[in-house]
Amino acid sequence: MANASPPPPPYSSSSSSAYPPRPLKSALRSRQQKPPEVLERERALLARLPAADLSREKPIRNFLATRFYKFVLLTIHLLFGIYLKLRWAYHNILNRGLSILYYHHRTPQLIRKDVKELEERGKLPEHVSVILEYERGGLDTLIDEVSEISCWCASAGIKTLSVYEQTGILKSYISTSHRSISQRLHSYFGRSRPRLRVHAPPLSSLHEPGGEGREVDLEVIFISEEDGRESLVDLTKTLCDMAQRGKIASEDVSVELIDAEVTENTISEPDLLILFSPSVVLRGYPPWQIRLTEIFHVQDNSGVGYQVFLRALHRFAKTEMRFGR
Amino acid sequence: MPSPTLHGSSRTRKWVLSSPPVEWATMKLRELLINALRQGPVPQHVAFVMDGNRRFARSNHIETVEGHNMGFEALAKALCYKAGVRVVTIYAFSIENFKRPLHEVNALMEIAKIKLSQLCQHGELMDRYGASLRILGHRSLLRQDVLEAIEQATEMTKHNDRAILNVCFPYTSRDEMTTAIRDIVSSSTIPHTSPPSPSPSDSSTSTSTSASSGRTATPGLMDIESITEKTITRHMFTSGCPPLDLLVRTSGVERLSDFMMWQCHQDTDIVFSDCLWPQFDIWKFMPILINWGVKRRKLEKERGDVEVRGVGMGMGVGRGGGY
């Protein structure tokens, strides 16, 4: 905003010098008989008249004004761009520092220590969700990131982790991911590694590798864009079908009904959503489920990092839930 | 308690800021900036969660009701139609807010009634921006007198077509989605032969599709396979508005709290601001707008590069076409 403080020279000078001639000329032509002092007064007056009603017949003036505003906007964008660069640099140095200060060294005990305070206050989220990007590093990076985050969750004592990736590529690599996460858990925990279940919503109740009753320590769920709007569209279709066959009335459609269906078919409402992107854009994350979810991101951060995860947990513990009260 | 020196300095600052020359200069500066912003990409649809009125009241030792009042004034200051925004949606009252103490709910209703009629009087704010008012939400939960005030206010601004102010009055996003789905379900059971259908555009599309591919459809009923995301979007309260470009939530709470979930979960930029709503004004909003513009311009450049490579056309003149 500081850039706008210099007065607008091109515009104001052009307005005062360029615009009197034409109206004056016509005035002079039509009122030749007027005494010179009247003309003088008119001239003085014309210079002070507001530009509003003259602007219509002044295309050049309008053009110049637009040019000028464009120039101002360009300057604003330029300065803002510089500011953003500086902010980015500052935040990155800060993030680097934090990631050196807080590093897990693949030791669950260290992670436990980092979240101990939160656990004592009972402020640890049960269900954490993350948004990852496939385009940034390809499949290998993606699975690697999933494994890392799973280990952090397991160490911190978070029971459910849902991983949102827009394209849904992870859903076709469930067994690969399961293997990768298991290996990583082994390198963190050694022999007594936590029990793990990896699955994706459409298959959830049908194909469970370990069987229904098995208790797990960490549940990893892969979700994608199709679990958002598309699942709601499918639900609408099902409900329409039932209504057409007279099984339900439209009045039966309630928030509770939809919530039950959505929770059963996809995921429940997460407590905390962690973004590893520099700003908050949800990229098609399931809309029904983000009602009261705490959305965390680190400004100007890009990339998965333990310090982001930890800061998210701390931030979550500090906030009070108010439920509209 | 503020120290006397602090108090004094803030008073002198206020005095300086309200002195005619400074006021004139800030006004000119604001005009200049707004005119400049118009030249670039501007979000067409902006949503606000007006959060922090009560906290502001508490920290400034004023009545809660007064805090809400000031919040309403902040809204008037933050309305950004002049910068080229066409639709502003605000979260005024959540269905969950009915859980608040009764006297506060009643006071809020009174404020709403007064402000609605104030806003919409001839020559007042809404008229000046050429904006029409729409109330979104579960209206049947409201009292009769409030409903009447709403009716009157919408009626008075109906003729304005340059901009729209959506006020989400007793609203939650889940309720909105449920209502949309319920509407679709109920319209799917109405046979086509009966002419009145809730939304004319929808019934026409469904007839045409069911006529072309009538295999799954029960004769005379809506073809279920024709239901898409677009159908649901059309049944949202915001149907007809451009897609939501920017969502701003004040007071540092980083949650959507059941607001515009269907509309904002794709490409919308969501910004969480730390200031409380009564303190939010054009100077707080300007950086957000500029940031959005910078980002959008970068995005357009990337997209433009692809287009130029594909079509071989020149400079990015096509701004405003897509958005």
UniProtKB/TrEMBL annotation, chain A:
It is an enzyme of class 2 (transferase). Pathway: Protein modification; protein glycosylation. The keyword Transcription regulation does not apply. Its main location: endoplasmic reticulum. Signal peptide: none annotated. InterPro entries: Nus1/NgBR, UPP_synth-like_sf. Its cofactor is Mg(2+). Keywords: Endoplasmic reticulum, Magnesium, Membrane, Transferase, Transmembrane, Transmembrane helix. It is found in: Endoplasmic reticulum membrane. It catalyses: n isopentenyl diphosphate + (2E,6E)-farnesyl diphosphate = a di-trans,poly-cis-polyprenyl diphosphate + n diphosphate. This is ditrans,polycis-polyprenyl diphosphate synthase [(2E,6E)-farnesyldiphosphate specific].
TrEMBL record, chain B:
The keyword Ubl conjugation does not apply. It is found in: Endoplasmic reticulum membrane. Forms an active dehydrodolichyl diphosphate synthase complex with NUS1. It catalyses: n isopentenyl diphosphate + (2E,6E)-farnesyl diphosphate = a di-trans,poly-cis-polyprenyl diphosphate + n diphosphate. Residues 200-213 have a biased composition (Low complexity). Residues 187-222 are annotated as: Disordered. Pfam families: Prenyltransf. Keywords: Endoplasmic reticulum, Magnesium, Membrane, Transferase. This is Alkyl transferase. It comes from Tuber magnatum (white Piedmont truffle). GO terms for molecular function: ditrans,polycis-polyprenyl diphosphate synthase [(2E,6E)-farnesyl diphosphate specific] activity. PANTHER family: DEHYDRODOLICHYL DIPHOSPHATE SYNTHASE COMPLEX SUBUNIT DHDDS (PTHR10291:SF43), DEHYDRODOLICHYL DIPHOSPHATE SYNTHASE FAMILY MEMBER (PTHR10291).
